[in-house]
Amino acid sequence: MDTTPDQRPQILLHDPTLRDGHHAVSHQLDADQLRVYATAANAAGVPVVEVGHGNGLGASSLQIGRARLDDATMLTTVREALTSSRMGVFMAPGWGTSDDLAAAVHHGADVVRIAAHCTEADVTERHLGVTRDLGAEAQGVLLMSHMASPGKLAEQCALMAEFGAQAVGIMDSAGRYLPTEVTERVRAIAAAVDVPVIFHGHNNLGLAVANSLAAVDAGASVLDATARGFGAGAGNTQMEVLVAVLERRDVATGISLRKILAAADVATERLMKAPPSIDSIAVASGLAGVFSGFKRPVLQSARAEGVDPIDLFLALGERQVVAGQEDLIGDVARQLKAAAR
Amino acid sequence: MDTTPDQRPQILLHDPTLRDGHHAVSHQLDADQLRVYATAANAAGVPVVEVGHGNGLGASSLQIGRARLDDATMLTTVREALTSSRMGVFMAPGWGTSDDLAAAVHHGADVVRIAAHCTEADVTERHLGVTRDLGAEAQGVLLMSHMASPGKLAEQCALMAEFGAQAVGIMDSAGRYLPTEVTERVRAIAAAVDVPVIFHGHNNLGLAVANSLAAVDAGASVLDATARGFGAGAGNTQMEVLVAVLERRDVATGISLRKILAAADVATERLMKAPPSIDSIAVASGLAGVFSGFKRPVLQSARAEGVDPIDLFLALGERQVVAGQEDLIGDVARQLKAAAR
């Protein structure tokens, strides 16, 4: 066996297939599905396997959507399947609480992501501190990050690092970035913090893999990706494709290409109805910079008011609507209908 | 109506949905399918709509696969649907002949692509000349272009320009390129010729859109893309996504985004069984740099010999097997089987 340490640049891949992918199936994965995928990802050498309701700890509810399993069952199931991968969880303050965090770490979570809207890093302070006190690795991520400037994101990431985050970074929640935009943002963040920088892509404009490469070149060292891109709408950065591309770039991930291809096959057969693809709604949503979780209410409002859903997405993008403002969707649809008369 | 000339950089999009996409359905599109998509692409302002058997003029045969319709019927059907788009055809010398070219131009082909393996531009001379004599626009493209160096590709493209090609360029037939590799190749070609440079991407490594952007930045001005990426395996560059991304880049294509999204919806509903996605075979094929048309014989030989198709793809890549060498697939499969004993 070759025990020479790998001298190539190292990137840590973080796998939210069983969390962000949950959005694609209304949070209805069962224990067998969690177990079979976690087992395959663990066998492939995936460093962190994240699990939970799509919106994270404590989010299962009538309003957001009930998960099939409670947090404790999801965590316990995945924990049992992991022998070398660490287990990750995601939490957005407001949906999750300190009690949820304590329970997650009790059930074996090693890595805790605390998420905030891109300009609201201050809300992460308490839970990053709680995570550190619990002895888990604390990370801070900014959602809908295309809505803030590189300087603002750098400032917000530095704040999270001050709060104790051991890695910080940005999510392209709307799938809107071009590679050059990722470059300038990740570069600004990397210059502002001393901890690893995270990039989480979505594929609405077909650029998730390229944006991940741009992030690496700009200084990111943690990339999120999911098996076969499993995720809402156009899906996430496709894990096994990213592993292949990083091999071509001579970047080390510690992941077996052959085994991650097998894990992707497991995910395709067992988790999803069909692999994600970039439909017209996904393109409009990415171009508008609207949170992909808006798809269902947008389609409903468009149908109810008899307006084109693509027009509605673009109008919501112009109004810079963010998660939590779902009530506005119906209002904007009615305005479009009135304007069309 | 705004008649101010568009001052932004201009890119011409060339749409081989009804030719390269044909590979995804064993060349079985019928006249209604050709008509409905050509009508939608024409309405969206697509400059060139290419049509034909996946392997081009004259290729319909028992060995390669019979198309449902003959060349004349395909061309006549699409010609009738186009009021403003030009009609394109593709021909690889050996499969097609000068008679096929003459018939295609007689049936209304405006743009003729003559294709050769990346190091064999000399075979295009006669047919580029015939095309010019027939009064159509002649273009020359190099297949499997990742197998040649930037300098070699520039030399081969310059040769095709000397033969009369009015645009020249490269196809990423295996879907293997990283953006930096496209940059250096297109830059070398653009420096060597005075005609527009063409780039044709495939999405095996999830980089078709990013590679197309890299091509533009390096000097390409003709990009190929298909509706919803319709094409063999992982598919081609996705047209409507590329249009959206070029809009974000402030590059003009003359195509209506709303109407090209509608055309992509037509293609999804009427032409394909399912939108292309990047499965494990496609990743292995791209990484190996093997022509995607090899998928079916590779799967057959792998099954026949009881070897892993991904191993077989990677072994074929190491041997630099090219189209026309299909006989080698079974040999390599038997070698893998023997080596595994």
From TrEMBL, chains A, B:
Its EC number is 4.1.3.39. Gene3D superfamilies: 1.10.8.60, Aldolase class I. Mn(2+) binds at D20, H200, H202. The record marks R19 as: Transition state stabilizer. Residues 11-261 form the Pyruvate carboxyltransferase domain. The active site is at H23 (proton acceptor). One of its GO terms (biological process) is L-leucine biosynthetic process. GO terms for molecular function: 2-isopropylmalate synthase activity; 4-hydroxy-2-oxovalerate aldolase activity; manganese ion binding. InterPro entries: 2-IPM_HCS-like (IPR050073), 4OH_2_O-val_aldolase (IPR017629), Aldolase_TIM (IPR013785), DmpG_comm (IPR012425), DRE_TIM_HOA (IPR035685), PYR_CT (IPR000891). The keyword Transcription does not apply. Transmembrane segments: none annotated. It comes from the Bacteria. Coiled coil: none annotated. Substrate binds at R19, D20, S173, H200. It catalyses: (S)-4-hydroxy-2-oxopentanoate = acetaldehyde + pyruvate; (S)-4-hydroxy-2-oxohexanoate = propanal + pyruvate. Keywords: Aromatic hydrocarbons catabolism, Lyase, Manganese, Metal-binding. Belongs to the 4-hydroxy-2-oxovalerate aldolase family. NCBIfam families: 4OH_2_O_val_ald (TIGR03217), PRK08195.1 (NF006049). This is 4-hydroxy-2-oxovalerate aldolase.
